Amino acid sequence: MIQRLSLGLTAVLLAACAHQAAPVAEAAPQPQACPAGLGADIQCLGGQDSAGAFYLIAMPKAWNGHLVMHAHGGPFLGAPTSKRVAEDLQRWSIMPRAGYAWAASSFRQGGVAVTAAAEDTERLRGIFIRHVAVPKLTILHGQSWGAGVAAKGAERFTAGKPYDGVLLTSGVLAGGTRSYDFRLDLRVVYQYLCHNHPRPDEPQYPLWMGLPESSKLTAAELAQRSNDCLGLARPAAERSAEQAHKLKTLVDVIGIPERSVQGHLNWATFHFQDIATRRSAGASVFGNTGAVYRGSTDDRALNAGVLRYAADPAAVARFAADTDPTGRIPVPVLTVHGIHDPIAFVELQSVFADTMAKAGRADALVQTFSDDREHSYLSDASYVALLDALQAWVTQGRKPTPAGVADGCRMAALRFPSSCRFQVDYRPAPLENRVPARRRPG
């Protein structure tokens, strides 16, 4: 039974004090049609908050009293839209179907702004407790880039203990200053091989910039350039020998599967442009000085020929303050990551473990790994098991183990038939085993 907030002034003030509720100016969410596939037993509410972010809330009729605050991946560029949160509710419908209330913000702005997104998530939590219900337990969930948002929010918002536990799935958890190094590597190796991004007859710019602010290049035009050079849009049998050779070189040197090359190239173009023009005052937060690239048929020529850049220390420091986790998370943290994730390398988890350990919070972290090749979604049973394990840790002090989560997945699969691929003995290698080390500022 949903514990509706009292309309009395005293109750509202107490809730606001105890739960860091959103400002009084925040309007109540309104009933909305749920995205397709959620079922009749789930009701949806939505709106736009005072900062301009759209949000969506899903309330199961058989609510277990627990709230999942969801931070979405991406990030997306451009103005916020309600479509973003509707798509995520469809993807993560297992959470309300399993009895959890679910709430997510579109964030008030597009682009690589981690702290602002954490603030938007916290604002929505306030809206939920003021206008919908007071949960018995609140879990902060971050997916992909949103895992960095959730980690930042969990360490930033601690007064009154707004979050009881943190679930980070397929997380980009090495911070902005380390997680994206391989995308600069992709740009310089691609340019060495293809010479068309930019073309010789176009204005030249440092590749860490992504694109000049004034550039009109579109994603479709970029895809045409990569297809011209690598044959990405063609079946392998239809690629020229030169295209096949260049694509194999790029894949082998950067360590990404062929199917994810275009996505990473887009990110290293348009998101890097967002970082350079909106986050770093036009200075470089990425560098590859000292990086040694391996995997081509002539590594000596490759390393001599790629463009080299040094990161700006002040820009790196500003970007780190916004995007890099500190590990000072005062509540239990449970993670899961696909071992063969083609988007966010599993080795990022080794950095996050080090970050938590350096903050003295190693005992508050349990990491699990799944033998998956996907990034955006693993399986219904996997997430139910993780939520159940985190809930037991928070409420009963039973710290989970990877083996226990794997057992829980098999039990959850009886209710929500789906795969369970947890590898209980897996440990990720250091990130430097996947991404070449480089000289860093300071």
Shape: globular
How big a fraction of the residues is strand?
5-15%
Radius of gyration: 22 Å
Residue share in helices?
A: 40-55%
- What letter string, H or E per element, gives the SSE order? HEEEEHHEHEHEHHHHHHHEHEHH
Unreliable segments of 5+ consecutive residues: 1-22
Instruction: Report how far the terminal alpha carbons are from each other.
Output: 55 Å
Residue-averaged pLDDT: 94
Strand order of the largest sheet: 1-2-3-5-4-6-7-8-9
Main sheet makeup: 9 strands, mixed
Structural class: alpha/beta
Strand tally is 9
Please report the number of helical segments.
Answer: 15
Task: Tell me the layout of helices and strands.
Layout: H1 9-19, E1 30-32, E2 42-48, E3 54-60, E4 66-71, H2 82-91, H3 94-97, E5 101-105, H4 114-131, E6 137-143, H5 145-156, E7 165-169, H6 176-179, H7 181-194, H8 219-230, H9 241-254, H10 261-279, H11 299-305, H12 313-323, E8 333-338, H13 348-358, E9 365-370, H14 380-396, H15 402-415
Parallel strand pairs: 4-5, 4-6, 6-7, 7-8, 8-9
Antiparallel strand pairs: 1-2, 2-3, 3-5
Helix pairs in contact: 4-5, 7-9, 7-10, 14-15
